[in-house]
Design brief:
By secondary structure, the chain is mainly alpha-helical. The protein contains five helices and no strands. The chain starts with a helix and ends with a helix. The model has no long low-confidence stretch (mean pLDDT 96).
Length: 120
Amino acid sequence: MFRSLLWVGLGGAAGSMLRYFLQQALNGLRFPWGTLAVNIAGCLLIGILWGLVARGQLQAPGRALLMSGFCGGFTTLSAFSYESNLLLQEGRSGPFFLYAAATVLGGLLATFVGYKAIHS
């Protein structure tokens, strides 16, 4: 159990640092591009990893490191929720609906594409 926690922690640290870097580089004042990008990229990655698990090519340590750790630290529901609420508070319902739809539908599609790319 301790080793699994260590793998999750290492992956989570790496994912969180990469998310922070990308959000700083991509988030603009008018639209949260960085958060959208990390969430969709994280969904694509978890789909790929899911495909590897289904093929028996990703064992428990790798799942802990990459799925729970890296993807868990890289993607973020809390930033999505915060940024969505900011858009609403600013009265920007168009960008809010675009962001919400792109995040949810794009994430689902990216997970499916990642899975199918590996496990077809």
